[in-house]
Amino acid sequence: MSPFEFYLRSGRRIALPPATVETKFNPWHDPEDGRFTFAGQGRHFGGSIRSDQVANRPVGFRGGGGSFGGGGAGGSWDAVGQSPAESGTRGRGVARPTDRVTLKRPSSSARVPGKQQRTRLTIYKNGYSYELDAHARTRRVAGEIRLQSQPRSRSAQSNAGKPDRRNSDDGGHFIAARFNGSREWFNHFAQDANFNRGAYRSLENQWAQATRSGKRVFVDITPDYRGTSMRPYKLTVRSIVDGKEFIRGFPNEKFGR
């Protein structure tokens, strides 16, 4: 047991010989600004990576129209295992950790115009994965639909998409509260009210009906943005129902059908 470990367990310090120096080093750094991060978030510098670190690394999501990776200059985050949607095509469930990260949404002033829009973090919550880019925008959501209601967050709904939110928008959910969707900000977006209460609700009803009938429903939602806007201008929704794939594109407008 090292002197540091002894101190953590006993609260007592061990006097070290004058020539002995104990050091700690965090090899994980954010590729954007070089700051220290938690293990598995960012890039690993120096030393070998342990198996437990690999298991906790952010995952680039692959399937249905390309892939998202992270990484900084000179490297990228590799995908570990299968994505939820890929698992769905083979009839398996979502084998992913949940509730690993709780984040506060950065202010709009944190956006950097012209920055490369790559995914930099994957969050797992309530059985779904949420991929975020450098502007703290949700770029992909995937997982298996579950009929389990969650409480809503009025604050997250009212602030969704600001400062680019329109007066005609609702605070929409990527994954509805009735499907165990997270009440965190990253599961919300500025959604045209007509689209939210019309075409998107109709699609959600289809998911619910299929799930109640015993079918397994996996979804893969990809919002698209213009420039650094926090409001997506369209959504591409890939649904896999008992192995059958359906893809629909929805403009985030009044007649988004």
Give a written overview of the molecule.
The chain is of the alpha+beta class. It has two domains: 16-57, no CATH class; 59-251, Extracellular Endonuclease, Chain A (3-Layer(aba) Sandwich). 17% of the residues lie in helices and 23% in strands. The strands form three sheets. The chain has a six-stranded antiparallel beta sheet with strand order 3-4-5-8-9-10. Strand 4 and strand 5 (138-144) form a beta hairpin. The chain starts with a helix and ends in a 6-residue tail after the last strand.
Please describe the structure with a list of short key phrases separated by commas or semicolons:
257 residues, alpha+beta, Extracellular Endonuclease, Chain A, two-stranded antiparallel ribbon, 2 domains, six-stranded antiparallel β-sheet, 6 helices, 17% helix
Quick summary:
This protein has 257 residues and is α+β, with helices and mostly antiparallel strands. 17% of the residues lie in helices and 23% in strands.
Set out the fold topology:
Layout: H1 3-10, E1 28-29, E2 43-44, H2 51-55, H3 84-89, E3 119-125, E4 128-133, E5 138-144, H4 154-159, E6 169-173, E7 188-192, H5 193-197, H6 199-212, E8 217-224, E9 234-241, E10 244-251
Antiparallel strand pairs: 1-2, 3-4, 4-5, 5-8, 6-7, 8-9, 9-10
